[in-house]
Design brief:
mainly alpha, 3-stranded antiparallel sheet, two-stranded antiparallel ribbon, elongated, Cytochrome c domain-containing protein, signal, electron transfer activity
Length: about 210
């Protein structure tokens, strides 16, 4: 009788040990899966950001949206202020009377962040994730709608995205492309730089000669 009891006890303990081992293995598997999912998601985001950087660079976005450093070969993007727009410390540019009257040419500032033409005067926007002066409060949906519609904030009846922004070209990109660009822009350092609003033609400052 004692022998049978001992055998049953051993069997029960063996089953309990097996269950415990399986439970520990299951917990370990769950932890591994959690880590794997986190790693995968980070890798996916890193890949989106890398693709976004590529698209922003080859599309020439830095040409108008990044302040420049002047070199003997002309202006190059200031890598410490990428995509932060027309430098607000420069104030509102003025045009000579002759330039203001000549509507046969589009004028631009030396660092290619301010422009004047028949539409008035416009400035490269701050596309860094600064919440007060950039696009830090924009959702991806707002960003995509703005590009797709050519309307500020993607709002119906909103003001148009002004020249020389080639939104109608970028609008032909895929949703994945635009998502990648958004992720890259949101990964940049947030730079506080309040860019002036567009100026109508009749309000451009003119220097009398």
């Amino acid at each position: 009788m004692k022998s049978k009891t001992l055998q049953i006890t051993v069997a029960v303990l063996s089953v309990m040990a097996t269950v415990a081992a399986c439970s520990e293995a299951g917990s370990a598997d769950k932890e591994t899966k959690k880590e794997d999912i986190s790693t995968i998601r980070k890798k996916e985001k890193d890949e989106l950001i890398a693709r976004g950087k590529y698209l922003v660079t080859v599309s020439g976005c830095n040409d108008c949206h990044s302040p420049k450093i002047m070199t003997p070969m002309g202006p190059i993007p200031d890598t410490t202020r990428l995509m932060s727009g027309y430098p607000s410390e420069k104030g509102i540019p003025t045009l000579s009377e002759a330039l203001a009257k000549d509507q046969n040419w589009v004028k631009m500032s030396p660092d290619v962040t301010a422009f004047a033409g028949p539409w008035g005067m416009t400035f490269g926007a701050n596309l860094t994730p600064d919440e007060a002066t950039g696009i830090g409060n924009w959702t991806e949906e707002v960003f995509v709608k703005t590009i797709r519609t050519g309307k500020h904030l993607g709002q119906e009846g909103g003001r148009p995205v002004m020249p020389p922004m080639p939104w109608y070209v970028i609008a032909k990109m895929t949703d994945e492309d635009l998502s990648s660009m958004y992720q890259y822009l949101m990964s940049l350092p947030a730079i506080s730089n309040r860019v002036p609003a567009p100026i109508p033609p009749n309000e451009i400052k003119i220097t009398k000669q």
